[in-house]
Every structure is written in C-alpha cells, then in structure tokens.
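Please go through the protein record below and see whether the fold suits the sequence. Record follows.
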Amino acid sequence: MDVGDHAAKSGHVPVMLGRVLEVLTPAVDATAIGRDPVYLDATLGMGGHAEAMLRAVPRLRLIGLDRDATALERSARRLAPFGDRVTLEHAVYDEIPAVLRRLGVPAADAVLFDLGVSSPQLDEAGRGFAYSYDAPLDMRMDRTQRLTAAEVVNGYPPAELARILREYGEERFAQRIAAAIVRERERAPLDSTRRLADLVRTSIPAATRRTGGNPAKRTFQALRIEVNGELDSWRRALPAALGALPVGGRVAVLSYHSLEDRITKQVLAAQAADTTPPDLPVPLPEHEPRFRLLTRGAELPSDEETTTNPRAGSVRMRAAERVREAT
C-alpha cells in the first residue's frame, strides 16, 4: 500500500499529497545530508502529510506544530506508531524560531504549510467555522485565546467591521453587511452562525445571491482571519521558516485564498531575486538569490483530485529551495 492509499483509508485525504512528497523528499535524503533529516509540519492538522512523509523517509524526524489542541491530540494518536521520531508542539506557525531553539534543533530540512481551516475545525459544528451548521459564533483555532467571532461582530465599530469584510473577505458589499450587522446587534447580540449567514444573505442584492456559492462565504472567511490573526502571523511565519532552512532545504506552501497566496508569492519572489544594483555590470555574489523557485507560478491540483476531494478545489501550491546561505 502506498502512502496515498494509506492516507485515504485513514479517512482523511491530504491535499496535493503526491506533489508535496515529490517536492519535499529530496531535501530530507539522509544519505545526501549525512544525518537524520528534520521535517517541520507547521500546520499539522489531521497529520496526513506528516504520516506520509514519515512512511516515505525511514530516518525522518517530525516536528509538528498546531495551534489547535484537538488537532494535536488526534495527530498524536495517528502518529503514535512512529514513536520518538515524532515531536508535537502546541504553537502558532510564526513561533517556529522559538520552537526550534527550545528543542535544540538548529535547522529544518523541509517545511510544509497547509494553510486555512483544517478538516476537524470545519466538521465539528460547535467550532463555528462553517455556515452550513448552526453553532455559536466562535471560529477560534486555538480555543485558549479570548477573542471570538461573536466578540468581533458584536463589539467592533461599523467602520472596522466594514474594513475587515472588505480586506479579509474581499467582499464587495462590505459596507452594507456591516451596517446590517450593527442594526441587528442593537436588537439582540448576534451569537449564532445561522443568524449571521441569514443576515448576510438578505443584505446583498438578490442577483448576487444566485451566483458564486453561499453569499456568507466571504464574511465567514474575513471573521476567521481576524479572530485568528492569520495574515499577520503568515507575514511573520514564512520568512521565519525560510530562515530555518539550510542550503538544500525546501519549503512548500498550500494556500486557499488569494490573500495568503499573494503574501507567499511576494516573499518567495523577493528571496529568489538577484539584488545586485542595476547599474553594476556583473552580479555580486552577496546579492545572488538565496532561493530558487520550484514551481512555475502557483500550481493547481489535478481535476481528478478536485473531483474526489472537494476541499482541494481552491488550493494553490508554491515551493522553493535554499541555494545560498544568508549573508
């Protein structure tokens, strides 16, 4: 049984699994690097990618991070057969440098980020991530934190609500939805996903409701990003991960909306650029690219995968390899 079949039989299908393995395994070849390689899964989730990597590379050591304690508990059970090759940490991915220091690990040879909401977060109605269930407006990936979606919709000023919906949800009708939220919360606090989804639906023009899927999708995305500070964390996390890679180390990023992918593209492009001043006749060694891109633009999943695994439909993958030490 190959790693893909094993993952499917476990009930969780990791997104773009074959391509992730193809991109990352060259960086964790123990024979090439002369020691046991380290794989950092910065968004462990259900542990599907991590299990596949551990099966594919016998001497691999896994460091798995997740801010969601439930995800860590489930992954610990799944990865238990790998024994002391597995270290799991309750941490947000922008804490990578601190985690590696605490563990005494000088570098990570391969790093994976599978961004967005994990399967258990979507599937557990009580978490409040999905508009398809009626649940408390929560949306916390880390349930030890204070801020919830209910606090955002009931406490933020109208202008701030509109900004979040516009910037994080790319919502054309942000102003209208924010105004409707304010009117509704003056009558009674908004505390359920269904009430919010219904409110969004009635706040936008009827013609718009008939296309593009559930009209609440963009609002829920915006609130989730705000509650979990996702974009700010991501702006810190990717550079931190790149800094942890040795020469030959690789990173792969799976993004699920344009905001994450845009940050990824900008950071990787900057690291893969020659920064020699344009008025000099030859490139300077200290200004040569630190990374090379392993993907041409953003790679998409196959049609077959999006058919069998609908959650892969919006994914975009980018990857890079360190080719030069930082100076």
Remarks:
- DSSP finds 16 helices and seven strands in the chain.
- The first strand starts at residue 38 and ends at 41.
- The two ends are 45 Å apart (CA to CA).
